[in-house]
Amino acid sequence: MRAALLLLAISLSASERLTVPLGLDQYIPAPPENPLRPDVTALGRDLFFDKRLSRDGTISCSSCHEPSRAFTDNRPFAIGIRGQKVPRRSPPIFNRAWGKSFFWDGRAETLEQQVLGPIANPKEMDLTIEELLVRLRRDPSYNSRFRELWNREPDSQTLAWALAGYLRTILAGDSPYDRFVAGDRNALTQRQQLGLRLFRSKANCHACHIGPNLTDERFHNTGTAFNNGQWTDPGRFAVTNLAADRGAFKTPSIREAAKTAPYMHNGSLATLEDVVDFYNKGGRANPFLDPEINPLNLSPEEQTALVDFLRALTGTIREGWPQ
Ligand code: HEC
Ligand code: HEC
Predict the structure, then answer these.
(1) Ligand 2 atom closest to Cα of residue 263
(2) Tens of pLDDT along 83-92?
(3) Most buried pick, 16, 148, 219, 310, via CB within 10 A?
(4) Which atom of ligand 1 lies closest to the CA of 164?
(5) Contact partners, residue 226, CB within 8 Å, separation at least 6
(6) Is the CB of 81 under 6 A from ligand 2?
(7) Is the CB of 266 under 6 A from ligand 1?
């Protein structure tokens, strides 16, 4: 009896808070109307892996954001329903609780807004939100879980709450870099330490890849969408209509970068070596190139050190609420 009570107490305290991996803020932001709760994130988790969220039952969120691939799909362009090519690459989606805007061009302002996008997108899951809600209401298990949580049938708001709640539990951290920053001087090799110094000085990476998640959450033109004098993607311009935003994309987190190839919004750089070579040459010249992007004159040894450092950003990825 006493043992049972003790177990109950332990499991209650375990479910009360979500532990955050080393290197991230301990506080996980969430909107007041959708606070982080284990029962909500568990529902969102089931939805995330459920192929019934697509018209023909072939695609789930996890088809393009695979847990075993650091929540990307390792393709240059995502492949949606009926084999359709999506015009952009699936970005890694960990640590998004700290995001300031969503999608490569930042067109969604909140995670709650973002999560409904891929369901209705005809190239991704191709199911209108209304059609999905009918499916969820007809499913006795989903229907009763939504009712227990919010005392109403599944609707677009509670659907968004559940999915966004789960996304806020996908956390990447605790890498050799984080252990080094926390004081373990042996966590990085000498060469990686040189790479880190370059990252913060001569190579200027920290101008944009900064903070716990190694992103400023802002938009920059590095030239990736400029090809032979043509724009292949408007980038941020599609949202703001400002000429200077043409070809600008949201700085992605570069945590777990060793696992998320190919790189950039269009998967145009295959390896980390290619990425460092791209920056070393000053990105790709175009009328709106970010002033922080310039030729770096890194020696081959310095380029190798920088790549080695990027590999030290691989740590652990946690998802869901630990039971
Ligand atoms: C067919 C592949 C595919 C499917 C299915 C898919 N996504 Fe994505 N996801 C993408 C692509 C591609 C982007 C970037 C699109 C853009 O920027 O225009 C993206 C962007 C995102 C982002 C934005 C990340 C950021 O930081 O900007 C989140 C979050 C996300 N997806 C979550 C989800 C969820 C939740 C689902 C299921 C409801 C889902 N995705 C289904 C391919 C997919
Ligand atoms: C002016 C801001 C800026 C600077 C400086 C910068 N980056 Fe980036 N970085 C970005 C943006 C924006 C993207 C996404 C570009 C795109 O998708 O087309 C990106 C993408 C990346 C990616 C690919 C991540 C992914 O998932 O696609 C890596 C890796 C990366 N940068 C590493 C570096 C390194 C290393 C340096 C220093 C040599 C550096 N960056 C300097 C803004 C910057």
Answers:
(1) 27
(2) 999 999 999 9
(3) 310
(4) 35
(5) 232, 247, 284, 285, 286
(6) no
(7) no
